[in-house]
Design goal:
Blueprint (H helix, E strand, L loop, with lengths): L10 H9 L7 H11 L4 E4 L6 H15 L14 E4 L3 H14 L7 E4 L6 H9 L3 E4 L1 H9 L10 E4 L2 H6 L3 H9 L6 E6 L4 H10 L4 E4 L10 E7 L5 H9 L7 E4 L3 H13 L4 E4 L5 H13 L4 E4 L14 E4 L6 H8 L9 E7 L4 H11 L4 E3 L26 H4 L18 H10 L3 H18 L3
Parallel strand pairs: 1-6, 1-7, 2-4, 2-5, 3-4, 5-6, 8-13, 8-14, 9-11, 9-12, 10-11, 12-13
């Protein structure tokens, strides 16, 4: 069995790995670290949760540590390694990994992403960094403002490349790559290998080493998967019932839309379930607070859109619920991959409406497994939908027949009586709402009609 001690990593990095409690590399680490240490370009195919962050972080730290930056050059240290990530959460976790593994190397690193003020990020860049982790949008903004200099980049990493292409970052990626030195080492990691990823790899990589740890795509056998065939209006009640079970210690619930995530979170909170929501409309501080609350256990349930499907690393997630099935079957694999990590067991439960059966068939075809169909609990009752037009109106008792024509008292001048009006009163009111000229013209027209209709 391969150990980290057998890899050609420098002493400070091996000490940091041992201090973190790791001894044996994962399959993607064992296959990727040696060629990256040798300076080769790499094309890696691995699902989230397989340890691929360390697969590129460890050799990058080793390379920069044994060849320190030229201190004779005046000015702040320019970044020598650039890692692009699709989401803020994943970028933050990658930066934390560099801090964990490189704590004894003296290398400086920072992370930049949107959704927050750029003041502290710019100040950190002006102080000098060796490793820069960024999302494409904020990086281009700072490049246009002249705060980032990428001319000294030696290693360029694209993490979750397929996700970045799904989010429309293909042109920013090419623009960033054009600003890098031609002589560099490029590493590309992706959970799937569609045709557009292969085209991107051909344009960025030079004679790369290709590594893959699992067939693409597949689900881990450590996850118990099942599905409920349920009507859409019954999903919230069923979700409350499932989350009330004691076996659900820490759960991640996925919805398709941001509005749906907020709506479900409010309902679960009213039902006594400690839940928080995270999605793209939340500010960075709100997203960080939600993740910290979920990690610390203050919130037992995190309701999220697919923004959290990749890169979200929270220990001890026992259940993943798909409140809405994803339209892309690959997203299902990434969603349920939040549980059953590092050999642990997990449970993935999906709720499927009649309109979502086409997505279910695509998921089963992709994964090669048929999900176990569960029966809906008989205790689930669906509350009828309130009429939105009358939801805010106070209910008034309908008057009886004996009181419909009676007046409760004299009405004020200029006001209408509360008593129901008879036919003649309604016609008088209707006529009174028109101008006098219009009423006279209407009477003349009616009189002429009667004369024409009368027999000769």
């Amino acid at each position: 069995m391969l150990h980290f001690s057998s890899l050609e990593l420098c002493g400070p990095i091996r000490d940091a790995i041992a201090h973190a409690g790791y001894d044996t590399p994962t399959p993607i680490q064992a296959q990727a670290i040696p060629p990256v240490l040798a300076g080769r370009d790499l094309l890696g195919c691995a699902q989230t949760g397989t340890g691929k962050t360390a697969a590129f972080a460890l050799p990058i730290l080793h390379r920069l540590h044994i060849a320190p930056a030229d201190k004779k050059r005046r000015g702040p240290v320019k970044p020598r390694a650039l890692v692009l990530s699709p989401t803020r959460e994943l970028a933050s976790q990658i930066d934390e990994s560099f801090g964990t593994y490189g704590q004894c190397t003296g290398l400086r690193h920072t992370v930049i992403f949107g959704g927050v003020s750029q003041f502290h990020q710019v100040r950190q860049l002006h102080r000098g960094v060796d490793i820069l982790v960024a999302t494409p949008g904020r990086l281009i903004d700072l490049m246009e403002q002249g705060h980032v200099d990428l001319r000294n980049i030696e290693v360029f990493v694209l993490d979750e490349a397929d996700r970045m292409l799904d989010m429309g970052f293909i042109h920013p990626i090419r623009r960033i790559a054009a600003a890098l030195p031609v002589q560099r080492q490029t590493l590309l990691f992706s959970a799937t290998m569609p045709r557009n990823i292969m085209h991107l790899a051909d344009s960025l990589l030079h004679n790369p080493v290709k590594v893959a740890v699992t067939p693409t795509p597949s689900t881990t056998p450590c996850i118990e998967q099942s599905i409920y065939m349920v009507r859409r209006e019954a999903k919230p009640a069923l979700m409350e019932h499932l989350l009330a079970q004691r076996a659900v210690k820490r759960a991640l619930v996925f919805t398709r839309t941001k509005y749906g995530a907020d709506k479900l979170t409010r309902r679960l909170t009213r039902a006594g379930v400690m839940a928080t929501a995270i999605h793209g409309n939340k500010s960075q501080n709100q997203r960080r607070h939600a993740l910290e609350s979920f990690r610390s256990g203050r919130s037992r349930v995190l309701v999220a859109t697919d923004v959290a499907a990749r890169g979200l690393h929270v220990e001890g997630i026992t259940h993943v619920f798909n409140f809405d099935l994803p339209r892309e079957p690959e997203a299902y694999v990434h969603r349920i991959g939040r549980t059953g990590r590092a050999g642990a067991t997990g449970i993935a439960i999906s709720l499927c409406d009649r309109d979502e059966r086409v997505h279910l068939r695509a998921i089963e075809q992709l994964t090669g497994t048929r999900l176990e169909t569960m029966s809906e609990p008989p205790a689930i009752q669906v509350n009828p939908r309130p009429d939105k037009r009358h939801a805010d109106r106070p209910r008034q008792d309908r008057p009886s027949k004996s009181t419909r024509g009676a007046s409760s008292g004299p009405a004020r001048a200029g006001t209408r009586s509360n008593a129901p009006a008879n036919g003649s009163q309604r016609r008088a009111r209707k006529a009174g709402s028109r101008p006098a000229g219009a009423r006279a013209g209407r009477r003349c027209a009616n009189r002429s009609k009667r004369i024409r209709r009368s027999p000769a």
